[in-house]
UniProtKB/TrEMBL annotation:
GO aspect biological process, one term: fatty acid metabolic process
Lineage: Bacteria, Pseudomonadati, Pseudomonadota, Gammaproteobacteria, Enterobacterales
Source organism per UniProt: Hafnia paralvei
Claim: Oxidoreductase is one of the keywords in the record: yes
The protein, known as: 3-hydroxyacyl-CoA dehydrogenase
Keyword Aminoacyl-tRNA synthetase: no
Amino acid sequence: MSSFLLQGPVAVIGAGTMGIGIAQVAAAAGHNVLLFDVNVEASTRALTTLQQRLRQRVEAGKADANDTEQLLERIQVVTALSELAPCALAIEAIAERLDVKQSLFRDLEAICSQQTLFASNTSSLSITAIASALKHPQRMAGLHFFNPAPVMKLVEIVRGLETTQATLNLLQQLAVAWKKQPAICRSAPGFIVNRVARPFYAETLRALEEQVASPATLDAALRDAGGFAMGPLQLTDLIGQDVNYAVTESVFRAFGHDPRFQPSLVQQELVNAGHLGRKSGRGFYRYDSSSIQESPAFSCIENGSLPQRITAHGCWSSLPHFAALLQQNGIAIEEQKESAESAPFLRLDEVIFMLSKGKLSSEVAEEMRTPVVQFDLSANYQQASVITISAASCNTAAQTALVIRFLQSLGKNVIVLPDYPALLTLRTVAMLCNEALDALNKGIASAADLDLAMCRGVNYPLGPLAWGQQLGWQHILATLENLNAFYAEPRYRPTSLLRQLAAGYVSLSFSATQDLIP
Ligand code: NAI
């Protein structure tokens, strides 16, 4: 029990979706919780719903009856702000408006003791700006829980310009005692997750806008081939198109309309139409029981021939799961010793089969004067049920079919995209890396906390930085440079730290960063 870390109860202000979840987390860790909402009914309703939900868990044999009743007894609804006077920590989860939050903390500062810590669960406002309303902004930080708060492991602890190390340390200890995994970051737009995750949605939304494939196929390329837990489009349907669009817009605005955060017109149209996703019954998909769910488009070759000769070239250490997949299938590989330092590729008869580096397959085929099929990145080629490819326009149908047959023989379903540079997972991961490196370079968070936040906050299969390091910074840089050249848009410009890593001038440390900003 973590109540010894604080000399008084925890106040939770705002009893909506997040507030009641945070109250549950604090009470489960042994704190007495005072729950306040301007709307008294909202507090009592939220507590009644929590009681029902937790007691159902007891009835289902999933929780202990005594523990549950004790937890519920620790949460007390209060009807006046003045009743929060004894709290040692006040966490607000009220309306997402700067003036409203500032006014609340001004009132709390007048009521509570000088030792009380203040925390905001804001997802988009500056902690520094909220804290500026306080006479003692040193004792205020962001405590950004993810929805649902009792389930999601990540808590971003956000340091405002005035937040002291002592405040951060105590909140960090509390988060650990509350069985959460804290990631510390500076107050900057989107903190870690809402900033670094933008390209996950943006790249697929762009591919949809460019009519590369259907929503179901695009989602399968990221989920079943790439290794993400959900496809970006199905995830935005779950989050709510309006909510996801608003986060992108707020980050875009906060970064001075930087084109790398440009909101999607396709998504804006969904919002305009009220197609908000699951909650409205329709988004990129339809959720009424009568509708037939769209399936991904796989290319299937029933009777084509398999390659007669397969040779592996280059160094496969950047693609360990692909090398293991070949071995696992007993594919006889003729190792080509002379090219041990270069990028890995397979030669399937006369067809070159390689991981994309951001160029069109047709362009690569022209350069190499040979038929080319490129494949997309995956977090784990062995586990993935699908592999995504694109073929050069000069290939004969039989040459591309040969590759599809080969991949089917490895047990994979195959998505054949039109010739699209960096396909889908590779361009997404390259952009996630770029964003994480930019945040690292600007001292927003350490490499370890950046990766932790993306794995625990949005369930990525690998942290973007660990993923980039495994694939190789040169590959990530080349991908972005090729996309930059293809689109001639500043969206894909590589960040300075990526250039330094790719050149080998610096290496990535997963220990804490040196803090240069005072
Ligand atoms: P909500 O709308 O479900 O609940 C907000 C509650 O605050 C309402 O019950 C309202 O009556 C109350 N309230 C509003 N102004 C108040 C005031 N001045 N004093 C006391 N109570 C007041 O909102 P939700 O979704 O729980 O969000 C709350 C905060 O958490 C926002 O800052 C939001 O950005 C942030 N957040 C939301 C997440 C989500 O997924 N919903 C995730 C992470 C953060």
